[in-house]
Structure formats: C-alpha cells, structure tokens
Amino acid sequence: MRRGSVAKRSYRFQVGQVSGLTLFSPHQRLVAQYGQNKSIRKVVVGGEQEMSIGDKVVLLFGSKAVGKTSLVDSMLNYLYDIRKENTFRFTVRKESAPTTEVTEYVINNSILPFSVAIVDTPGVIDEKGYKGTSTIIRQWCEQELASTGQFRLDAISLVLKSDEEELGWPYIHELAEVKRLFGDDLKTNVLPIVTHTEILPQPLAVHALAYANVTFLEYYKINNDGFIPINCARTVTNKTEQNRLFIHGKTSFERYFTDLRGLAEPMIAIIRAPDVSSKANDRDLRNSDLCLR
C-alpha cells in the first residue's frame, strides 16, 4: 500500500458535503505559541513526522479569488492518494471565505518521502498602493525566524487564473516587494500554477507571465473542480468531465512535486545569528542573518 494511502488516514472529521461528495478534515494541529501575530498560523496536517533534509516549503502568491486555498485542498487530495472513484475528499477549511491571513500547512505522512509545507497567503488586491500581501509575507518570515531560529523557502508558486491576460501594477509591485525580500532571486525556483483551466489550449496566463518578465521553466495546470467540484453540480455529464480534470490534475501534480523535489537548492535558507534581534532592519532579510545560499 502506498505511503499516505487513504486507508491509513485514521484521523478525519466530517465537515460537510458538496456535489455528492463527503468532505473531511484530516487531522490538524495548530502550532501553539508560534508568534504574537494572530494573522499568521502554522498548522501540522496528517500527524507528526520527523524532519528531514529533503523537506520542502512552497509559498503561494496570487491575486484575490484565483483559488489558492482551493489549490491547497487539491494538493491535499493528491498527497493523500485520493482516487477519483472515492466518495469523499479532504479539505483544510470548514467554510469558503476569502483568505485574510497567512497559514503554513505542514503536510506530513503523505505519498511523498518528505514533508511539504504549503504557505497560503492573502490575495493581492487590484488597488493602487496596496502592500498588504507583501507586508504579511515579510511578517511571516520574521515570525518563523523568531520562533524557530531559522527560515527556509524552496519555491514560490505564482497562482493565476487561466484567462488572466495581464498582471496589473499592484500585482507586479507586490511581486517585486517579495523578490526584494528574498534577495531578488526568482529564477528556477518559480513554479507557476494556472487554475480554472481546460486541458487544452495553452492558458492566456502563461503569456501574462512572459509579458511581465517572470522567469520560469515549467508551468502546471490545475482545475480545482476536478478534485472538489464546488462550481458545478455532479451530474453524469459533469462527472465525466470532472474525472478528466481529476486525472489531468493528478498528472500535473506528479510533475509539480517531482520538479519541486528536484530543485538543486532552496530559494533562501537562513539561520538567525544569536546576536541578531528578531526584527530585521534591512529590506533584505539576508543582510541581517547567516544565509546558507
């Protein structure tokens, strides 16, 4: 039996139903005393697991309502080996609402031989002067350093809707702030995910990234309705389409997590020096700490 198979998920709690599927929350533990900022949380999913050198941390970044939290649910169902014929799905949330805080989901005991942390962030608002997303991402970095004495980020996944023709200036400015925070080094460690997709053709969002001079090697198409059909009824016709989206999404996730595992080095890894205060004075965190890259 595969590691992380649903047959091994002994802790789960029913939270609702959608389109004939029962939704369960897997075992989750909120990390206590993680920090003073109540808008930043760390949640351990799937029980405890020993840390390893292969563990990965991914930050999700995107506009409001592109489906980042739904993407976390889709990842969860892939990582815990849910099959399309199963009559239930896993979800990390009890209700659908806009994300207003940073939540780091540390997903353990999955089909992967390592732990993966997916960091869900508030969506960028298309409003002049908006800095809310980059600000709370910086606060998350500082809180992680203050809490554990170290910080690691392996990749950023830019999450975009398939039909996004261009990235607005608030998005570009916020992405620039995040790049500055991590040392302006976003190259091979950018793994874009395009949501609300059909299997064909190439999404417009890919061109939007290219026009914005965002460097990436691959992109991954995921339609979250293939895993949890929120936006359509589960009729016979739709079920056939959802099965196709599920299979395609599973294939995309196989590529995604293979590529994530294959990253030669993290985007940034920091060990906080003992004599450095928990609040960095410079805009680049790496100027005030011991950076391992």
Automatic annotation (TrEMBL):
Annotated ranges, domain G: 58-142
What are this entry's molecular-function GO terms?
A: GTP binding
SUPFAM superfamilies recorded for this chain?
Answer: P-loop containing nucleoside triphosphate hydrolases
The protein's matches in InterPro entries, at most eight in alphabetical order, are given as: GTP-bd, P-loop_NTPase
Leader peptide range in chain numbering: none
Query: Under which name does UniProt file this protein?
Result: G domain-containing protein
| Species whose genome carries this gene | Toxocara canis
